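pinned: reference chain
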Amino acid sequence: MERSEFVDRLDSRLRIADYADLDASANGLQIGSRTGEIDHVAFAVDGVRQTFELAIDAGADALVVHHGLSWGGFDRVTGRTYDRIAPLVEHDLALYAAHLPLDGHQELGNAAGVADVLDLEDRAPFGELGPEYIGQRGTARAPYAPDELRERLETELDGDRDVRLLEFGPEEIEDVAVVTGSGTDWLEEAVENGVDALVTGEGKQKVYHEAREAGITVVLAGHYATETFGVRSLQGLAEEWGLETTYFDVPTGL
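pinned: its structure tokens
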């Protein structure tokens, strides 16, 4: 497949342009030329030297990640920034990043993947960010006790991390909102929507008291662990397009 076609297909499917003014990440093709062929695509959550080296060793032509290198641009390509970019350029490995567009995609996204794990029905977009959404909410087929919800996530999510509960909600959890990664800023929206629990990756100090005062359970399942779903979905998409793929699981424990 032509590299330009691969990039354009992802840009269109993920609606990259719609997030241009909302996301600090430079979504889309971050490093590399649009010309040339792509036969083998690697996928990982984080665009870092470790995953770059793994992709190069695997003979990949492109690496698709959730967390890329450019967050508002580069002032200078020196030091650690240069050390990260150099292998990509030297080995002609293209880097494609999809941050918020992949968090909130209602079919392919990270929140949709967590909702699948929890077997949620009657789903709707959640996590307003301007005109877009970066999460999803739904209703469990059968109510979860808080410990059952934690055990389900610990069993099904990738990543080396225990799931933590801030258990301030009802004893039976039915309505669940999901914003992966660092999503506790959407606690108030969860409260306003009457959900029983907000599932996210990592928390902030203030969320403990906010959740306690609001009477809602917050589930901290790990930033990495909640954000493997999107790139895995894109891997499946690339395989449907006839490309060879490889996924690298590099958990951070966070």
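why pinned: The two ends are 36 Å apart (CA to CA). The first helix runs from residue 3 to 14.
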